[in-house]
Amino acid sequence: MKTLNIDVAVIGSGSAGLPAFRAAKAAGASVVLIEGGAYGTTCARVGCMPSKLLIAAAEAAHAARNTAPFGVHVDGGVRIDGREVMARVKRERDRFVGFVVESTESIPAEERLIGYAKFIDDNVLEVGDHTRVHAKSIVIATGSSPYVPAMYQALGERAVVNDDVFAWDDLPRKVAVVGAGVIGLELGQALAWLGVDVTMLGARGRVGPLSDPAIKDYARRVFSDSFRFEANAQVEAATREGDSVHLRYRDSAGNLRDDTFDYVVVTAGRRPNMDKLALHNTTLELDARGVPVFDPVTLQAGNHAVFIAGDANNVLPLLHEAADEGRMAGHNAAQYRNASPALAPLVRRAPISLVFSEPGIAMVGARHADLAAGSFVTGEVSFEDQGRSRVMLRNRGLMHVYVDAASRRFVGAEWIGPDAEHIAHLLSWALQMNLTVDAMLAMPFYHPVVEEGLRTALRNAAAQLTAA
Ligand SMILES: Cc1cc2nc3c(=O)[nH]c(=O)nc-3n(C[C@H](O)[C@H](O)[C@H](O)COP(=O)(O)OP(=O)(O)OC[C@H]3O[C@@H](n4cnc5c(N)ncnc54)[C@H](O)[C@@H]3O)c2cc1C
After folding, report:
1. pTM, whole model, 2 decimals?
2. Listing from the earlier edge strand, what are the strands of the sheet with 159-160?
3. Topology annotation, domain 352-467
4. CATH dotted code for 2-146+271-337
């Protein structure tokens, strides 16, 4: 067993670990990057990128099927070749992964260790069975893994998660998607538009991250046009029948249903990867999920020289948040080279989250559920009669913008609608600049654009404030 003495050890070479490594180095520390799995990151390998590639194919199919209202006829059917679809998803995905692997492997070999890290004590790690790392500080950036309830684990390879979907060589005929979170909705709609018979079994009426009841209801209706959507389902039994899976579930109306699927795609949430870390060997305080209790501002676990970033801490499991957290964790970990480390706070950007469905779901700033009743007004726009949206025949959507009643500042928005990913950026920038609804309305709006819908919602909020 080799021994390595180092300032900072970063566990995990994902979207949080890589920036942590670079930030610690930039701060002047000696650093080692430890990876137990494959280089390339979850985002590029089995997350953001392959999901968007699958969605792009689905959108092409959907557009091709829906040309007739424009007087444009695709004579003959639209044929989807599942093998070609999956081949492109994997080919392009591998290209993205290749860039990340290349960049990771450009880190000098002596600064990288291959193998899973486990804690021996608060400052000592064992990597694989070959190296003991004595570190002044440690960044845990181990990411997360799909949670598969026991009921589905018993189905063997017929219960799949996102990683498996992106490894398919062909598209299946019929699937159940269990869980209507962001990943479930994205995969469910994409598979449905690619001709797969999809049943989505959600729980507690959840529709992605939405918390505004009116927007949630609208979104539920939209998705019900793409696939059978049981937002309030209860699965009572899951059994393997040869190469199929039989599910018995109560639908949203409480009726008992039986159905058979090729696969169950389990999108029931993700759990931080703590299992291989042997945290019981440390004096770190752990929460109920076994994750070290940490300060979300400095990312420090208690007053230990341990920092936790990215999906591993499960605060905001998004790529840009993982990168920001990684940078800050790496920077702060490097301060432990000094006798009295001065930690910097993580200044978070305005909250933004998206579901890459069509129409898209977006949330910016405060969630509706977190706003104090009576403290805000809600400006609304329906995209059904919105000029540009109707021109493009993408006129489905409902937006709510929330404006603080006292300061007239924009505080948040939830919606489903066309071009949501772009409007979400405008709104998150406005939020981060602390703009009032009046300052936002003083900005330019070209004509005819979907953003004119946003202007209607803002005007609606401003009028309510003026009338009050
Ligand atoms: C299907 C899907 C779609 C997504 N789409 C989006 C999107 O559109 N936009 C967005 O912002 N986010 C999206 N995300 C979320 C995003 O991918 C994650 O937030 C991000 O990848 C988290 O990065 P990370 O560094 O925390 O984890 P990872 O990139 O998973 O890195 C963790 C690394 O740690 C390694 N590791 C674990 N344990 C150990 C150990 N004990 N020792 C050594 N190494 C270890 C793992 O092998 C892994 O390489 C998506 C996720 C999924 C699953």
Report:
1. 0.97
2. 159-160, 263-266, 174-178, 197-201, 228-230
3. Enolase-like; domain 1 (3.30.390)
4. 3.50.50.60
